[in-house]
Amino acid sequence: MSDHSLPSRPRFGRIPTAVQYSGFSRSRIYELAVDHEGLIRKDNSASLVDFDVLDQILDELPAGFSPQGVTRGRALRRLPRRKPGSSATTPDAKVRGSA
């Protein structure tokens, strides 16, 4: 009988490994360490992330995405806004319209 279980993750890992594992940015991991004692441990100059603590943080996140309440216009709000007094037409449109 063979054991087909998944390989276990290490208990500790460096910051880049934790970034890949969790999907959090490097800076977000350091921010989380302020509120979650033991998330990061130091070994001389190396910062080691405790994956057990990181798993607890991930488990506390709210469950998935719900499309309810999301509007199609939400993505448009991310476009840069025009400066006050700027023309709504592009320079190319003015050239084409004057010929």
Written description of the protein model:
The chain is built from four helices and three strands, in the order βααββαα. With 99 residues, the chain is of the alpha+beta class. The protein has a domain at 23-62. A three-stranded antiparallel sheet has the order 1-3-2. A hairpin with a 2-residue loop joins strand 2 (40-43) and strand 3 (46-50). It is extended, with a radius of gyration of 24 Å.
Which structural traits does this protein have?
single chain, 99 residues, alpha+beta, 3-stranded antiparallel beta sheet, 3 strands
Strand content: 5-15%
The stretches of 5 or more residues where confidence is low (pLDDT under 50) are: none
- Would you report the number of β strands? 3
Radius of gyration over C-alpha positions, nearest whole angstrom: 24 Å
The number of helical elements comes to 4
Residues in helix, %: 25-40%
Secondary-structure element sequence?
EHHEEHH
Q: State the strand order across the main sheet.
A: 1-3-2
Structural class: alpha+beta
Oligomeric composition of the shown chains: single chain
Backbone shape: extended
Question: If you average the pLDDT, what whole number results?
Answer: 78
Question: Whole-Å distance between the termini?
Answer: 82 Å
For the biggest sheet, the summary is: 3 strands, antiparallel
